[in-house]
Structure formats: C-alpha cells, structure tokens
C-alpha cells in the first residue's frame, strides 16, 4: 500500500511511473498543495513519438491531480544537443530546422493537456527565450561557478563516453549547465519546484535542484520514470518500419492503433496503466484474461490510446478497418494509403515496386527476401516470386492494390 499523501504521487506509484525521487516526504507535501512541474522536450524532429509518451502522460497525471504543468520546448538546448544516453554527438540543426520542428511537436501535446491561463492550465515555454540572451562570459561567471568538473564527469553518460574513449565535445559537456539553468529560470518565473523526466535525465535533474539551492537558497525536486522497453527487450516505440510518431502526418491513426494492438501479451497490463486513463479496476479485469481472450485487452488498449491522441471517431474507424482487413480478408478506405504516379506504375509494375511504394520494405533485397519467405500478399493472394501487376487487378471498392507483409502490416497502393 502506498504511503504517499498526495493524489499525484499515489497515482504515479500505483500505475508504475516512479523510478527515482528526491526528498520524498517534502515532494509529497509539495504535490498535495498547488504544485508546478515541468518536463523538457528538445526539438530534434518535427514530431514526438511513442518514446516521449511517458513524459507526456506524467504531465497529464499531474494536471489531473490539480497541478500546473509546464511544457518546455528546447529551442535553445536543441542548438547544443543532449548527449544523454547517446553514443555519439547529435547533428547540429539550423535555426530554420529547429523552428520547423518546434511547430510540429507543439501539436502533440494538445490532445493530452488543457492549455490556458487558469491555475492548473498547462503552459508551453521555449528556453531559447532566456538561454540565447546570455553572453558566454556572463553565463560562466554567474552560473558556471556553481558546477564542478568532479561532479560532472561522474554522470553515467559522461563517464561511459570517457571510459570507452568516445568523443565527448565541450559543446555537449555544457548541456548539463543549460538544462540546470532552465530549472532555475522556471522556478523564478513560475514558482516551479519539480522537474520530471526519464531516468536517463537523473543527473541533469539533480544539477538543476542543486543549482536552485546554491543560487537562490530554494528547494527543487526531481522525479524520474523508468525507461520503457518491451517484454522482448525492444525499445518502446520502435518498429520494423521506424519510430511510431504521434503526428498523424507521420503515422496515420490506423497505424497508431495497430501499433498498440500488436503489443506483446506480457506488456498489455503495464501499457494500459501507463498509456490510458482506464481505471485500475478495469485494467485488473483485462489482466486476468488468458489465451486468445487477451486480444480483447489489446483492442481496449489500442482504442483507448488512439482515442486519447486522435479522437474516438479515428479509433472506431481504425478498429473497423483492422477487423475488415484481418478478420474478413477485406479492404477499407481507412487502411494506410500510398499513391504511385501512373507513369511510375507503368514503368515498374512489379510486386517489389508495390512493396516499396507501400513503405513495407526498405530495399529491393528486403522485398525479395519477404517474397521468398512467403510473407507477401497482394490482394490477399500469396506472392511467391516477383511478378508484374496490371490495372485490372485494382480492387474496385478502393481503386487500389492491397499489399501485405506478414500478418499485421497492410497498406493500399493507388496509382494516380
């Protein structure tokens, strides 16, 4: 039984979000009042992905418990690049690329949080607003004096890179100072006393709590969640065809639904707790299912997760499309659809061309392997060797080819 007094920490504990906490009792008291907390997200791509969902969901739980969440977009820190848990430096992005990425990832938060001017409404800030105003000498004098090299090189990320003699640039070495200063700035501007993040951010978070204490004599708290892997050891949000992006332009609602539907049996209960608002009693009922019945829990997970991000209508359409495609061996307009120009199709009508157009393979070699394995179907017909396809094979109800690899990856290819 949890000993936490605050609704927020009790919820996090019961649903499996907590990995590390600083000053447990004091943080519990803080969260029982009118707390403010933040998580930072660097703008390294134009969409967030499922791997970012733990942070987003913690902010959602925080708001549900009466706290005020701050979403910090790292317009400034993205210029440096977070070295945490990386084996090599991130590429340096241009100002224009960062601006484009920021515009894209802003959209990911709107379904999960309520933004506004109220006491518990979320706000979004950009750390470039304060970081880029600092002069280098002034930052070293006023902020750098609080940090020791002795402490910085003990961070696991730094220690590992040095131990393995991998390059670790001075640019990256400064990231700890920048993230720590973000926490200090937010504490001064908004009274924010809690920074949350993945457990790989523990060292950076401690840097911020220490800076708040040394610079202002104030109190800062840190809380991290575990880094989620699948039961088979895979990285959360990674699939055979790449990252599971949150923006619909990069990953359709159907594909997002299918990602959750394909959850491994051993992960269903955990993911229901972490990534849906279903009650723990409901989740316990699903967790008790065995054998083929566990598919009911997977469908519930897919529906709840997709509804939260894309809306109930999109979830219903995705479930219907999946049922028709997999159960009825049919087609649906809601399947992922890719277009190929008629000129291109006329010159390359092969099964390999269809597989590549549907983005189900990454190369001709992979396509040939899948065909040889008997894993490829076009219009539900197993294809055992690469062959030509003609317009008269287009399925009339969707005016496209239904292209499939394995049991779970299906798309439509439409010549236009």
Instruction: Report helical residue fraction.
Output: 40-55%
Radius of gyration: 24 Å
Given the C-alpha coordinates, what overall shape results? Answer: globular
Number of helices: 19
Q: The CATH topology of the largest domain is what?
A: Rossmann fold
Strand order of the largest sheet: 1-6-5-2-3-4
Report the mean per-residue pLDDT as an integer: 88
Strand content: 5-15%
Write the layout of secondary structure elements.
Blueprint: H1 7-15, E1 20-21, H2 24-31, E2 36-42, H3 53-64, E3 68-74, H4 95-109, E4 123-126, H5 128-131, H6 136-142, H7 149-152, H8 156-163, H9 170-173, H10 175-190, E5 194-198, H11 202-216, E6 221-225, E7 238-239, E8 242-243, H12 253-261, H13 268-275, H14 280-287, H15 294-310, H16 312-327, E9 337-340, H17 342-347, H18 351-357, H19 364-372, E10 376-378, E11 381-382, E12 401-405, E13 409-415
Parallel strand pairs: 2-3, 2-5, 3-4, 5-6, 9-13
Antiparallel strand pairs: 1-6, 7-8, 10-11, 10-12, 12-13
Helix pairs in contact: 10-11, 12-15, 12-16, 13-14, 13-15, 15-16
In words, what does this structure look like?
This protein is of the alpha/beta class. 44% of the residues lie in helices and 13% in strands. The chain has 19 helices and 13 strands. The chain has helices at 7-15, 24-31, 53-64, 95-109, 128-131, 136-142, 149-152, 156-163, 170-173, 175-190, 202-216, 253-261, 268-275, 280-287, 294-310, 312-327, 342-347, 351-357, 364-372; strands at 20-21, 36-42, 68-74, 123-126, 194-198, 221-225, 238-239, 242-243, 337-340, 376-378, 381-382, 401-405, 409-415. Helix 10 (175-190) crosses helix 11, helix 12 runs antiparallel to helix 15 (294-310) and helix 15 crosses helix 16 (312-327). It is globular and about 75 Å long. The model has no long low-confidence stretch (mean pLDDT 88).
